[in-house]
Amino acid sequence: MSRSIRKIGIEAVAVLASVLIFWVPLYFVVVTSLKDAKEASLMNLDWPSRIHLWENIRAVFSARDYMLVRAFVNSATLTVLSIAVLILVCSMAAFVMQRRSDKATPWITFFVLAGLIIPPAIVPTIWVLDEIGLFKTMTGLVLVEVALSFPFSVLLYRGFIGAIPREIDEAAVVDGYGGYRLFFTIIFPLLQPVTATIIVTSSVGIFNDFTNPLYFFPGSKNATVQLTLYNFTSQYVSQWNLLFTNILLITIPPLLLFIFFNKKIVAGMTAGSVKG
After folding, report:
1. How far is CA 16 from CA 2, 10, 21, 30, 272, in A?
2. For residue 100, which phi and psi values (nearest 5 degrees)?
3. What sequence ranges are listed for the domain ABC transmembrane type-1 (predicted)?
């Protein structure tokens, strides 16, 4: 009985912690986005006397010549291109790393793991992008996002590919499959669970990225959704109702993505960890 009581207590603490960490801030964002400028300036959890959500949404979308619309297009383009390149490159790299066994393999694994440990260097990266003509371009930002997500994605793919028997490769080679045809026809379709996991987790991270677009893709026309938060904050006057309405709008797409695909995330992570 004491063990069950202790278990219930731990679960209650976990639920309370999740409420404090996640739901209270979300409630604060929603409530503040419903208020007018005067009530929002009080920065409390009180329900507004009148709902101003639609007025706030119109003001947010029309701010700075509909900058939020351009930002959504930029963020969507960045996310789609980055995910496409990430899946293609990481799945192929993981397949080679898993199937290859020679003296270079431990070193390749070491450098991939180093990517999870070593922090990115902003100034040298800007210098490299500028030298090759990719600074302030979507292509350069896509390459940065892919590079930062590469180690984690490769490790997930590699763990999952380890569960695929080598006999499948050998049988395909006997049937005349080889190289790219072997990978894209036989192996890649088997990677759907972990691919779905990488798509969801990386999409949320790239779509919500603030630092990389700020440094590597500057300019008002190049703004992504996170950078539009600057529209409503200043040293002297901050429009808190519009700021939190903006936060609410840019939170909806990744939140819906996570809600609809959370089971695929768990399935892909579990399959990769157990089968690897």
Report:
1. 21, 10, 9, 20, 31
2. -85, 140
3. 72-261
* Share of the chain residues as helix, strand and coil, in percent rounded to the nearest 5: 80, 0, 20
Instruction: Break the chain into its structural domains and give their ranges.
Output: 67-275
pTM for the model stands at: 0.85
Would you say 203 and 260 are in contact if contact means Cβ atoms under 8 Å apart?
Answer: no
Average pLDDT of the residues of the chain: 87
Average pLDDT over residues 107-134: 89
What CATH number belongs to 67-275?
1.10.3720.10
Rounded distance between C-alpha atoms, residue 90 and residue 86, angstroms: 6
**pLDDT of 128-153, one tens digit each?**
999 999 999 999 999 999 999 999 99
For residues 226 and 213, the answer to whether their CB atoms sit within 8 Å is: yes
pLDDT above 90 (res 77): yes
**What type of residue sits at position 226?**
Q
Rounded distance between C-alpha atoms, residue 222 and residue 219, angstroms = 5
The mean pLDDT value for 149-174 works out to 89
